[in-house]
Design brief:
Layout (H helix, E strand, L loop, with lengths): L1 H15 L9 E2 L9 E3 L1 H9 L3 H14 L5 E7 L3 E6 L1 H14 L13 E5 L11 H19 L3 E8 L4 H12 L11 H21 L4 H13 L3 H25 L5 E4 H17 L4 E3 L2 E4 L1 H4 L4 E4 L7 H15 L4 E7 L3 H14 L1 H5 L1 E6 L2 E2 L15 H15 L7 H21 L7 E2 L2 H4 L7 H20 L7 H4 L9 H6 L2 H11 L3 H20 L9 H23 L8
Parallel strand pairs: 5-6, 5-11, 6-7, 11-12, 13-14
Antiparallel strand pairs: 1-2, 2-4, 3-4, 8-9, 9-10
Length: about 575
């Protein structure tokens, strides 16, 4: 509401000067000492009217000061003509009261009310291990899902899994080449998954070394599709079951619950039929025994949709998937989160979808992310040189437990908190920068309690909660009333200047589908609270202003909890 009031104030001032502007922009100054909002309207109009911006800004501010509302304490001209607005203590007290009143609903809005939005993410392939790249997709997809839900949309989380294809044939071929026995029912799930990973790496490596065996792999691949071989069927069914059970364990640990799973095995026949139908309509073309979507149609490059064996490729299955998702959930928007390695592939896919189902092409948005790497470099499931999500989660949890060994926890409690902290550390590291960038994950830095980390945010919240518990024990409750009644003195803190911004930060994260705006903001809030905590005597039964300081502390906890929820990060009660 502050933004709209300020825009109206500027418009009225311009009108009194016989001026008008179409698009008044207000931004948060980078430096909190430069006010709470800043406008460049004088620079914009100065350029348009060929007038000196500084003198124009002085005129505008003069008109604003004639009718200064109580929400604003002062307005200043800065630099070459920027207009800086400083909000009043009463405004901040009211914003703190609003935060406490709305609590877990603070920051929610109804921008997307009535919309059904699908978010497809994670998308691991059965018969291959769930690696750290899948953690990228899962973390980003889950956060975007929560941000969209915060805006009032009905969100459906879906996962598309490649349970057929060349990687499955290579795994089954690798099983035949393995020296190790096929795991029995007594084997643990981790042992079964490790075996499948080793089989895939062996099959992929042998295939690369001896292309003469390609015919055998193709034969297995065909048998998987037509279910014509009992031994292949048995290996396939067990491997698929193990993989899906393994994935479910990881989803639960990460805090994701999918509404629907889609599989390539179901999309394959439909994709094949769809491509053949549009082949007759000249959308696709035959080429060297395959069916392709030509460069002349895409304007990008040619891609194969049915291979020379007559089997549908990933591309054909994706066309079917779009329709399958819409039949289950008639969405207004379908967001697909993948690694940026398939950006060019996805561009062609959307062009093809524009021919086969233009309505769904218009409703599809692709969000790509960078790669997650360790300092040792890139991974490859084909060579077995991969870092599994499970191993990274366990190693990070182990390091978190070591950091907490001197803290007062029961053993089981320490493990639970260490898991929350370790997962929070990984998720924050993924979400703290733009989604398209690669990330080098450093365990020690990610677990730091000193700033720019998930544990730093979690710890700031537990500190705030600890203050509130102590105050309650002393019979004190948070209340913004002294400031609301104009009785509170003192300067407005940086903390107050940050807290009221939360809804607009959520909006920006929504509009750009970029959770990193939230991580940056929450880190600023945590830093401001830690400075406030270090320099302020928050609890003082003899000081009425202490109630307001407790209200401010409670508001910090609300913001951190709501923000961490949107990042998919759990909040421990103590650390």
């Amino acid at each position: 509401m502050a933004v709209e009031k300020l825009k109206t104030l500027i418009e009225d001032s311009l009108r009194s000067l016989n001026l008008e502007a179409d698009n008044i922009q207000l931004e948060y100054p980078d430096d909190l000492t430069h006010g709470d909002y800043s406008s460049n309207i004088a620079l914009v109009l100065g350029k348009k009217l060929k007038r000196e911006p500084l003198s124009l800004a002085v005129e505008i501010v003069g008109k604003i000061n004639e009718k200064l509302p109580p929400e604003i304490s002062k307005v200043e001209v800065a630099g070459m003509g920027f207009i800086n607005f400083y909000l009043s203590p009463k405004f901040f007290a009211e914003s703190v009261a609003e935060i406490l009143q709305k609590s877990e609903n603070f920051g929610r809005n109804e921008t997307l009310k009535g919309k059904l939005i699908l978010v497809e993410y994670t998308d691991p392939n059965p018969f291959k291990q769930f690696h750290i790249g899948h953690l990228m997709s899962n973390t980003i997809g889950e956060s975007i899902s929560r941000i969209i839900g915060f805006a009032g949309a009905e969100v459906k989380r879906v996962c598309y899994q490649g349970d057929v294809g060349r990687h499955v044939a290579l795994t089954i071929w690798g099983i035949r080449l393995m020296d190790k026995s096929f795991p029995g029912e007594a084997a643990t799930l981790s042992e079964k998954i490790k075996y499948l990973g080793e089989a895939y790496a062996l099959g992929a490596t042998r295939h690369k070394e001896a292309l003469a065996d390609d015919a055998e792999v193709k034969k297995i691949n065909q048998k998987i599709y037509d279910r014509s071989d009992a031994e292949v069927n048995d290996l396939y069914d067990k491997g698929r079951e193990w993989s899906l059970e393994y994935f479910e364990e990881i989803y639960q640990k990460l805090g994701t619950k999918f509404d629907q799973y889609f599989f390539e095995s179901a999309a394959a026949p439909r994709g094949q039929e769809l491509v053949n139908r549009f082949l007759d309509k000249k959308v696709f073309e035959e080429s060297d025994g395959a069916i392709v979507f030509p460069e002349s149609k895409s304007g990008l490059h040619t891609r194969v949709f049915i291979n020379s064996q007559g089997l549908p490729t990933y591309e054909a299955k994706e066309l079917a998937l779009a329709e399958m998702k819409y039949e289950v959930f008639p969405y207004d928007l379908s967001i697909v989160v993948t690694a940026n390695e398939i950006n060019e592939y996805f561009k062609v896919l959307l062009k093809a979808l524009g021919f086969t189902n233009p309505k769904l092409a218009d409703k599809t948005k692709h969000i790509s992310h960078g790669m997650l790497r360790l300092p040792s470099g890139k991974m490859s499931s084909r060579t077995g040189q991969i870092v599994t999500a499970e191993s990274l989660l366990e190693e990070t949890k182990k390091r978190a437990e070591e950091k907490m060994k001197d803290r007062d926890f029961l053993q089981e409690e320490r493990k639970n908190v260490a898991e929350m902290v370790s997962i929070g550390a990984i998720k924050y590291s993924i979400l703290k920068q733009k989604t398209g960038k690669d990330i080098i994950f450093d365990i020690e830095k990610s677990l730091s309690f000193e700033g720019d980390s998930g544990p730093y945010l979690q710890y700031a919240n537990t500190r705030a909660e600890s203050v509130l518990r102590k105050a309650k024990e002393e019979g004190m409750a948070p209340s913004p009333s002294p400031f609301l009644q104009g009785e509170g003195g003192g300067e407005v803190t940086n903390l107050e200047r940050l807290l009221y911004r939360f809804p607009s930060i959520v909006d920006r994260s929504l509009n750009e589908c970029e959770p990193h705006h939230l991580t940056t903001y929450l880190t600023e809030v945590a830093a401001a609270f830690n400075a406030f905590y270090a320099n302020t005597h928050i609890i003082d039964p003899k000081d009425d202003n202490s109630k307001y300081r407790l209200a401010l502390t409670s508001a910090v906890s609300v913001i951190l909890k709501n923000g961490l929820y949107l990042l998919g990060i759990q909040v421990p009660e103590k650390m």
